[in-house]
Amino acid sequence: MKHVIALDVGGTAMKAALIGPDHQLLHEARRPTRRGQGPDAVVGGILDLAAELQATGRETFGQGAEAAGVAVPGIVDSEAGTAVYSANLGWRDVPLRDLLRERLGGGTPVALGHDVRTGGLAEGRIGAGRGADRFLFVALGTGIAGAIGIDGRIEQGAHGYAGEIGHISVRSGPNAPKCGCGGLGCLETVASAAAVSAAWARATGDPAADAAACAAAVAAGDPRARAVWQEAVDALADGLVIGLTLLDPHTLIIGGGLAEAGETLFTPLRAAVAERITFQKTPRVVPAALGDAAGCLGAGLLAWDLLSTDATEVSA
Length: 316
Fold this sequence. Notes:
single chain; five-stranded mixed sheet
């Protein structure tokens, strides 16, 4: 059976799969990222896992992979096939595409994508945004990142930074929180899972309190939790309305850890977005559908797209 190799590289673990032409997960594997052993060990782990999957495919299906796709965090130059920078993984300018081609046998096409944009590709094409020709995917995790979907592909931007909605400034003034990017009042300083966790820890005096506990307290009616939660929801709605004003998507897809709160998040968020809309068309606001499989499935899509005639139109 024809198949491709898909790898989704995270800060602590790698998720990998062999994926068939109809998005079937034919084989799955997980391995630690080896981050604590240094950047060379991280790259070595990726190459080793890819080679392991290649061998599994040959043994199980009688042939090697048609192509490979890999999604990585940080700054990615998909056209050059280079992982430019990742503070999380400690690397700079890693020619990952060429290294994988060499490890897999030289003739295997390899696609490299940004982790959130790759997950957004999967959500938009085969997940929650299926059928929408324009969508905005937003991942609410430790930080906030996004992906802009246009006609089945993900817009990368002129320099590979398109979709970085987490760094839209939504708060100003002397009390605006400073962001790791150097800006003030960025969306992710107020509405990310990390920001909600920090705010809830301050409100409760419990340094171990986190966003999941805050969501549970909101559902239980705790007024302190509701205040923390609403602040994050309002900031998120401010950022999303900026995004939809610029992009006019049919669908807003919300994923990441905060989205696991379900209607505790989506009911007030939909209301907050609707309150802020003036002339804009109200989009569908929906939860992501693919969970932590999105990155792998997206990497698989990148790999299959390499085999089509319009591969340059669907990079992430």
